[in-house]
Amino acid sequence: MNKVTNDIYHTRVSHGVALAWVNSYSAVVVKTSDATMLFDPVGMEVPADSPLDLIVVSHGHSDHWEPKLVARIQASTGATVAAPPALAERLRVGGTESPLAPLLERGGTRHSDVGSIGASTFQGQNPPFDIVSMVPGEEIPIGGTTLTALRCDHAAVEPLAFQVHSPDGVTVYLPGDTTPFPEMGHLPHIYSAETLHKQDSAETFHNHSHESGVDVLCWMGTALTDGAEIAKLVQPKAFLGYAIAPPAAGERAYGILTRLTPDIPFQALDRRQVFLWPGY
Ligand SMILES: [Zn+2]
Question: Domains in the chain, start-ordered, CATH in brackets?
Fold first, then answer.
C-alpha cells in the first residue's frame, strides 16, 4: 500500500495525498496533486529546487517555530507563509532581529496591506502574498487543494490545528499539539469555513455527521493517551505517527497505542519515508 522513497517534494502525486515526517520534531510535508505544504519546520533544511507552495506554522513553541528558518525557506522557495496572527505579525514586522528583512524589502509596503486581510479573503485564488495570518475556520485554497485552520487546545498563543483537503476529496487532519476535545469527532465538516459561513450548515453537518470524514490522521504529539483519544474521536482510516527511537521505546509506545485503539491500526513513519494515501 505504501512505498518508501526519500524525496517527498518530488514525489509524483496523481491522486490522494503523499505525506512525510521530515525532521526530529514534528515537521511534516503534505503533498497533493496540485499543492505542497510544509508544516512546522525546525532544525532542518529544504533541499534546493524543492517545489513548495506553503510553509505552515501551528504555534510559537520552539519545537514548531524557528522564524529564521521559515524566512530562509521562504526566500529559497518563494512559498507563502501561513501562521497564527501574532507569529505572522512578527514575521512581517521583523525589527532589529528581523528574520524576514529581505522579504520586507522585496515586498515593499505590500505587507502592511496584507496585515488586515484574513486568509479566507483568498477564496478561489492562489495566495499572492508572502505571509498570511490564519485563525480557526479560515482557509487557504491552492488550486483544488484547501488548507483549513482548526481549533487547537494547547497552552500557546493562538495555536492552530490544520486540515488539508485534496482536489479528489482526501482529508488529512494535523491536530498539532492539541489535547482531545469531543467536537473533533465531527471533523472535517464542523470546522470548515463552509460550515461556518453557509446557511445550510446545520443540514451539511447532519448529512455528514455519521461518516468518518478524516482519511489520514497525522499525529505528531508526545502524550500517547492523547494520541489514542484523538484517534478514537476522529476515527481515521489511517493513523500515522513518527518512529520513536530507540526501537525498544518505539515498540513499547506502539504497543500502548494498539491496546488503546485496537480498531485503528497505528503506523509509525520513519524519517523521510513517503506515505501515500490511498495506496497506489
Ligand atoms: Zn507546543
Answer: 8-277 (3.60.15.10)
